[in-house]
Write a structure and sequence with these properties.
By secondary structure, this protein is an alpha+beta fold. It is built from 11 helices and 10 strands. It starts with a strand and ends in a 7-residue tail after the last strand. The structure holds fe (ii) ion (2 copies). This is C-di-GMP phosphodiesterase. It comes from Paraliobacillus quinghaiensis.
Length: 329
């Protein structure tokens, strides 16, 4: 299976690899079938940018380290319902957000890593909530690397799932961290740490962030983790920067954006070449990532012309470069 830009879908050689859901969690298209070109247009109009497909070159590649679809769509629905309650100033369902946080925490705990399902595989309407879930997964992977306890991971997860809740209450973007904080701190079941994640997620280590320009020790570690994960996901999803370039941009913010140890933990937790990614080896050989290794930035690849598999950890001089999925490859 591999992920492609929907504009590159070819109904003569590809079938759908994972189901496509509508905003009410109903299956629109089941896995295993071909998609009629007219339906492809409809999906594009619904704001779906990416789909998982099976074709000749993706044969034999399974993306094991990915959240299963029901868990992913459940998490998105729960976040959506929580954010919508906030719009109407109603009391949201705390229990379900705690449950989802626990579920994500468990998924991260028992796997070597977790590959994100891009928000762009969902309809436009669901993408802000998919963003919140993905940022949470990235944050939990980082927390795990930093040997956080379950209690700390839970606070991190809840704060990160709700980091942008201020956006559904307040139109002024600059105010969303504080408005979110004020909303969350009035909910007794939500820890003050989680509320502060929403408050601080746009601050930076050098005091040039917003809304309060806090810096150094005042900038909570958990909020820094949410901040890094949020920035990375925005670079990849909104700015359409390839994951490994986004990772380099994040690493360049070490000490200015976020503390060095947190940036390091983040870079050691996130796989920037998910299985199924088309890449160029040594600037000339098209290949496809087949497996993630211990080293998250040096996967196992299969050369397309010869079908030879190469472990980039053992071949440390080989260069890897993505053929940008977002540019339509
Ligand atoms: Fe935000
Ligand atoms: Fe965000």
């Amino acid at each position: 299976m591999r992920l492609i830009n929907i504009s590159k879908y070819d109904h003569t050689s590809m079938v759908l690899g994972k189901p496509i859901y509508d905003s009410r969690k109903r299956i629109l298209l089941a896995a295993g079938r071909t998609i009629d070109p007219k339906i492809v247009k409809r999906l594009e109009n619904m704001g779906i940018d990416f789909i998982f497909v099976e074709d000749e070159i993706s044969k034999g590649i399974s993306i094991d380290d990915m959240l299963d679809m029901p868990t992913w769509t459940d998490a998105i629905q729960v976040v959506k319902s929580f954010y919508e309650h906030a719009i109407n100033n109603k009391t949201p369902n705390i229990e379900s957000i705690q449950q989802i946080a626990g579920k994500l925490l468990k998924e991260v705990k028992h796997r070597p890593t977790l590959v994100l399902i891009p928000a762009g595989t969902m309809t436009k309407e669901l993408q802000p909530y998919a963003h919140a879930v993905n940022v949470t997964i990235l944050a939990l992977l980082t927390g795990k690397r930093m040997r956080y306890t379950d209690t700390k991971q839970r606070d991190l997860a809840i704060g990160t799932l709700l980091h942008d809740i201020g956006k559904s209450i307040e139109e002024d973007y600059d105010k969303h961290p504080e408005v979110g904080f004020q909303f969350l701190r009035n909910i007794s079941q939500i820890s003050i740490v989680s509320s502060h994640i929403a408050y601080q997620h746009h601050e930076t280590f050098d005091g040039k962030g917003f809304p309060r320009q806090i810096s150094g020790k005042d900038f909570l570690e958990v909020a820094q983790i949410c901040g890094i994960a949020n920035r990375y996901d925005n670079l990849v999803t909104k700015d359409k920067i390839p994951p490994h370039d986004a990772m380099e941009a994040i690493m360049a913010t070490s000490d200015s954006g976020y503390a060095y140890n947190i940036v390091t933990a983040f870079s050691q937790s996130v796989a920037t070449y998910p299985p199924g990614t088309k890449v160029l080896i040594n600037n000339s050989e098209p290949a496809i990532v087949t497996q993630i290794n211990k080293h998250l930035q040096r996967p196992v690849v299969k050369i397309l012309s010869s079908e030879e598999e190469i472990d980039l950890v053992e071949n440390s001089t080989y260069m890897i470069k993505p053929i940008d999925v977002l540019n339509g490859e």
